[in-house]
Amino acid sequence: MIKRFGSLFAGHIDLDDMGQDATPANDRRYDNDRLASVFEKTEAMAVAMDRLGYDAFWLAEHHFQHEGYECIPNLPLFFVHLAAKTERLRFGCGFNVTTMWHPLRLAEDFATADILTGGRVIFGVGRGYHTREVETLGGVLIDGDANRDMFEEQVEIVLRSFHEESFRHDGKYYTLPPRVPYRGYELDEITLVPRPVNQPVECWQPIVSAQPRGLDFMAKHGIKGIVGGGSALMAERPIVAFKEAWERAGHDVEIGENLCIGLNFHIAETKEKAIREATPFFEEHVKMFAPLGMVPMKPEQLQRVSERGDWAEMNIPTLERAVEAGSWYCGPPEGFIDYLESLQAKYPGLEDVNVQSSMGTPLSVMLEQLEHFGKEVMAPFRERQTARAA
């Protein structure tokens, strides 16, 4: 049964123009003041969500994006600030790209945030999808097998450092600690200082390709999964595959259990009005993510979305099609409640849902949409749940 509602924000600034005939993604460049405005924008969203009773606010870690799309580089640091501005809202790392970190530095930063916020930060890890970020910061991404190997070793190190008083690790990429003399003895084990005090640490990861190796790794380590929104098109296959992986690991789970489903949305009086209003934001999403392989396209379609111009003759994905596929909801709040109830019936183990506005949506619209959902969808949905349980 759905119990918690959150929202995912990738960290875009308010853009000047949006859509298929607007500035191409690679031509966008903003000065430092505009890029830094993402922090004030995010804080305004966090304060509103806290007031409206949302459970969690998930933000994305990204680097070097002068285009203005994903501009928050350090999640644990930012979450300490946001926790001081709010009362109960939790903050999700969606996601710390471990291949851009030394695993013990990531573990230390999270543990510090865990303590300073009283346990209001949710840990999350990812492999990355921007070569500019991962390769620049010392990780590997172009070599997919090496990326997977490094990621798995790093996550194992982080989780051990959270949950063990002291440990040593001898792996392909890391020897921790190195066997060096230290203050009169040879170093053999290491202790994370400080460790998270809110145990056990809950860990989440996006499900994108839903390959058995990745899902088995998640099930082995008890890592929960997020499907949809910015990480993958919502579909039944990864949800079923995730359940099967947990069963292979010896867990008896309901379908949807240990998952969060993410939905892009836009609420208006009618479906047609919602689609019309949100189309420029959806098109900006396509312009940004399609060249990264996250919106499947042919080469000639990719060329078109990288330029100004009409997409009508190119059969490029539209918001109407996304709504029909179920990865977007556009329409009145009553229909959204019905849609959530249909998800709950289909996936009875599901407890977490994220709703989010698309890439490019201005702050004023995002606040309006969070208000609509909080008051007209989330509150009555919870009231129905309470009444049924009585």
List strands and helices in order, with pairings.
Layout: E1 4-9, H1 32-52, E2 56-59, H2 75-85, E3 90-93, E4 96-97, H3 103-116, E5 121-126, H4 131-136, H5 144-163, E6 169-170, E7 175-176, E8 181-182, E9 185-186, E10 203-206, H6 212-221, E11 224-228, H7 236-248, E12 259-267, H8 271-289, H9 299-305, H10 319-325, E13 328-331, H11 333-346, E14 352-356, H12 363-389
Parallel strand pairs: 1-2, 1-14, 2-3, 3-5, 4-5, 5-10, 10-11, 11-12, 12-13, 12-14
Antiparallel strand pairs: 6-7, 8-9
Kindly identify the CATH topology.
TIM Barrel
Instruction: Give the helix tally.
Output: 12
What overall geometry do the principal axes of the alpha carbons give?
A: globular
Tell me what the CATH architecture is.
Alpha-Beta Barrel
Radius of gyration: 21 Å
Structural class: alpha/beta
Q: Main sheet?
A: 8 strands, parallel, barrel
Structure summary, number of beta strands:
14
Strand content: 5-15%
Query: Which parts are unreliable, with pLDDT below 50 for 5 consecutive residues or more?
Result: none
For the terminal residues, how far apart are their CA atoms?
A: 15 Å
Indicate the percent of residues in helices. Answer: 40-55%
Task: Describe this entry's structure for a reader.
It contains twelve helices and 14 strands. It is of the alpha/beta class. The chain has one domain: Alpha-Beta Barrel (TIM Barrel), CATH 3.20.20.30. The strands form three sheets. Strands 1-2-3-5-10-11-12-14 form an eight-stranded parallel beta barrel, surrounded by six helices. Strand 4, helix 3 and strand 5 form a beta-alpha-beta unit. The chain is globular, with a radius of gyration of 21 Å. The two termini are 15 Å apart. The mean pLDDT is 95.
